[in-house]
Every structure is written in C-alpha cells, then in structure tokens.
Amino acid sequence: MAWPEPGGDFGPWLPQVERNYCDAAREISRRQGLIIACRDSGHRKHIEGLLSGAADMARVIFVEFPYNDCWVRDTAPITVLSDGQPLLLDFQFNGWGGKHDCALDAQLAQNLIATGIFDGAAQEKVPMVLEGGSIEVDGRGTLLTSKRCLLNVNRNPSMTRDDIEAALTQRFGLSRVLWLDFGHVEGDDTDSHIDTLARFCSPDTIAYTACDDPEDSHYIECGLMRDQLTEFATADGKPYTLVPLPMPKAIHDEDGLRLPAGYANFLIINGAVLVPVYDDPADAVALQRLAGCFPDRDIVPIDCRPLIHQYGSLHCATMQFPQALSIAALRKP
C-alpha cells in the first residue's frame, strides 16, 4: 500500500480515508506481511501512530520514496514466476492514458525495487503501458480484460490487438485472452478497468457488476456485459458460473458527479476477502454472494465511501507479491 498524505488528492477527506487504510492494514497484517510505502520518516511515524494497537506491526515493513498517487495496483510491479523464480515486471505507466500527472508514479516500481525490499529478485522493464487493474487472470492461462482500456489509443497507439495479445501471452504465460466489449462504471476514469467489472473467484467462477434497475444509467451496459460473459467458456469448454454483484445506490461527489461505487473491487488476501461496502442494503447481498464464492475465506467488509472520492477502492489501492518475495522483505532488519 502507498499511504495517502495531506498534499495528495485525498487531502479533503484524509481523516476518513486514513481510517479506511487502517482498517485494510489491520486485516491484512493479521494474516500476512504488509509493505507500506510512505513519503518520509515523519510520514512513517504518523502512520505507525495510527496503526499502533490495531495492526500486527511485526508483519509491517515501511519503505520511503515519493509518489503521486496511492493506486499501486496500477503502478507497482506485477510478479510472475519464471523457471520457478519470481520475476518483477515493470510495465510503463502513463497516468491512465495521460489523464493525471504521473512522473513519480511512473518510477514507483523502480523506486520500490531500489529499496532492496525484494532482496535482489530478478526484474524486467517492459516497453508497454499496462496497469494491473486492467487485467484479471484465473491462474491457469486465461486472462480477462476490456477492449475499452487495453485497445484505447491513449495507452499503446502503435500496437494492434494482435500485438497486445501476443505481448500479454508472452509475459504472463497465457493460453488465451478473453476480451470484454462492454462494461463501464460511471465515475471510473481508467477507461473500464476490469477490476471494476468482472473478477475470477475461481477458474470457473466470475463475479461481475450487475444492474437490475432499468432507470439506472448502467442498466443497458451491464446487461450487455452479462450477455457476453454468458457466451464465454472455460478452457475446457464449460460455461462459467456467473455471480452477479448488485450495484449500491448512486453516490455523488460535491459537484453532483456519480462516483464508481461497486463490489467487484474486492481484495483477495491470505485467508480472507476484503469487500468494499457503502452503508447500502446491497452490501449484504454482495457479501453473501461473495461468501458463496470463497467458502474457505473470511469475508470482511471495509467501508469504502471515502476511497471512491478518488475513483478507486481496495483492489486499486493494493498490490500483492508472492510469499517468496514478501517473506524475504520481512526478514530484513
């Protein structure tokens, strides 16, 4: 996690956002190691004070370097296994298609690696723009993504669909790519990241954002996405089990613009799934349905109403690393 700070975009809601981060940090650190990026030693002391008595501080390690934003899902390195060993892939980042200042975030992966946190693990710079929130994999060679993001000219204008698919296949060891033509959550400024739309809960189960209200602006688009998901099949030709996640009632910012509240941005950690909630009746439905998808994990609700003011949630705010990397980090003095 990269902790928000007063000078960042979360400034107006910082106390509430920090409570969100504390809640997530508490649940994560109780079950596994947690790396927290902060600006400097003063920022670190502030965070330590917030987490004291709540998080398992023996499992928390801090790293210090500058960053623009907190959405490390899209800026931290993506890890694959190469010949059984972790390989950190550093894709290019351009501020979600040039929408935001990203000079520091474009260097976040390298700055993180430079701290020595990964104990000399292999790394590779990849000459392609890609955000972690734009891809979803089943762990068995299938990648799910959206055309609106990966084929957008504001990412890799010189690459064709075939070029992008070939690059993904090579880097992630894929056997196939599933492309969604439809799906968009109002307020999302990522050009339809898949982690707001549809997520693998297992190799044969996909939870997706659904809308049953004909008066809602999402109704037609979500219906088209659902229809396309029903046409997809697993690698062995069977239909996917599809789990609809309802949309909460619309939440708007101070200017009346709708914020991207939804449940598909859940975070899978060791032994639990952290689920964004919004003090809405749909919360209980989403929690119940995800509990059915993850019977061997705790389902933990985290109030994410403050987080969505900057158009992201739990999955966006975090990036996981394999145990081979994180344990090495936690053993460092």
From TrEMBL:
Hydrolase keyword on record: yes
Pfam families: PAD_porph
GO biological process assignments: putrescine biosynthetic process
InterPro entries: Peptidyl-Arg-deiminase_porph (IPR007466)
Name of the protein this chain belongs to: Agmatine deiminase
Record bears the keyword Signal: no
Single GO MF descriptor: protein-arginine deiminase activity
UniProt KW keywords: Hydrolase
